[in-house]
Amino acid sequence: MKRLLSLFVALAPLTVLAQQDPGGYNRALAAFNAGDMDTAAPLFFDLAERASDPEVKGKSEYFLGQALAKKGLPVAAFIAYAAIVNAGPSHPSYLKAVEGLVDMQQQLDEHNLIPSILNQAYTDDVRDRWVTLPKEVLARINYLVGTVSQRKSRFEEARSLLEAVPQDSRVYAKSRYLLGVVLSDPRFPGRPGEATVLDKEALAAFNAVLAAKEGQLDLRATQHLALIALGRLHYRRGEYADASAAYERVPRYSRYWDQALFENGFARFQNEDFGGALGSLQALHAPQFEGAFQPESWILKATVYYYSCLYDEVKTTLAAFDELYGPMEKQLEPFAGEEEALVQSYNLVAAENRRLPRPVYLWLRNNERIREVMRMLDRVDTEKKTLAGGRWRGTPLAAQTTASLEDVRSTLLQVGGTLAQSRIREASDNLRTFSDQAEIIRVQTALDEKDLLMAGVDQKALLTRQSLYRPKMPGAAWNYWKFQGEFWRDEIGYYQYTLKRGCPAKTAEQTP
Predict the structure, then answer these.
(1) CA distance 235 to 45
(2) Which of 158, 445, 482, 497 could cross-link to 278 by cystine, CB 3.0-4.6 Å?
(3) What domains are there in the chain, each with its CATH number?
(4) Please, are residues 89 and 125 in contact by the beta-carbon 8 Å criterion?
(5) For the whole model, what pTM was predicted?
(6) Is the dihedral of CA 303, 308, 311, 315 positive or negative?
């Protein structure tokens, strides 16, 4: 009897410990709180796989994500959080996992997978629960889900989500920019009847971005995009001088400067500032932009010359277009016909290769969403290497996490391939369209030259009688000197052409 009592006493502490720490949850939590993620993560993983208590299992799944994040494995952490979010609001760590997923999105700056997960989870059934999340977390969710709605052309839904982002949020400027894009989209419901009101609201949204103070995410880049969007809004409204002013505010050599130069060329042309339009294109065709894919810029240049009846210059410009882009159109034909496997399409962009024309290749790689896929794939590969060489090597945690990372990698390759195929088709379609436009201009130029000849107009004499004058100076701080074929870095963006006009004056009988 005495021996049995001793045995009972000896076993008593173990029995109490088992009741307090079923399966080792407290040990895992103690290691986590001590910053020992190498110990905590495998314990939480084991509990997440084997615990019979739903509460312990659910908390372990969440703390596994936390441990992976603290270990410097944000993709693995987002996978853990996503599994909880996908399990639904009955999960004991549901809202915490939503918050963790948003944190990983910010850390990774990921805009393809995580916004899609949040969009699918953000249903009417959970909205009342999600409003209890921290204010900044909910603001980010509204912005991220708003981006998905905008991509899917669900404009009213996008508007509601983006307008819900408060001014004190760090994604306020990004949300205002996207709101302006949504409201100014010609497909927004209510247009054209409500166009004036919607344009006014879009204008206010873009100006809010430009007025935003430091502390906003990606503020400078977002402001540059807002300037381009503002220029587009004014251009669509026929306010060409205002459009040009917006484009000219985009800082020189910023990431979006070449796009601003190109679109400013159109605004100046529509504003009948032909010399200014050619000046923008002169900058765009400088050696610094030699690798740029801008076929339409040559069509615009030919159009400017055509409207000035400078037919020799039209033909020279179209010949330059043919020389630059004719071979590219043929080179893209194999990729724009039958669809390749998505992974093969992505690999065309991901690796340096000579199968694509270099300007098209650079244009593809400059796409923000493709760049993001490339960055995320690098992050996935880094985390796989970490798992293969770390303390968890050979453990079930490492094996399953690596398998999950490989699943994400496959999904990213599919996304990247889809984006690459779409952009390659867009490049091919653009080249075909602009080649057709070049042919129309070429034919019309020949017809107009014939008309001048039949009318007995001596165009060369007409041009000889005209003088070229210095362009109007913007202000006292400006200097003028003639362009002599050399492109200086500090001159690019400030070119202004002066043009003669080869069109004969209309007689009174010809004037409508």
Answers:
(1) 57
(2) 497
(3) 28-133 (1.25.40), 291-467 (no CATH)
(4) yes
(5) 0.88
(6) negative
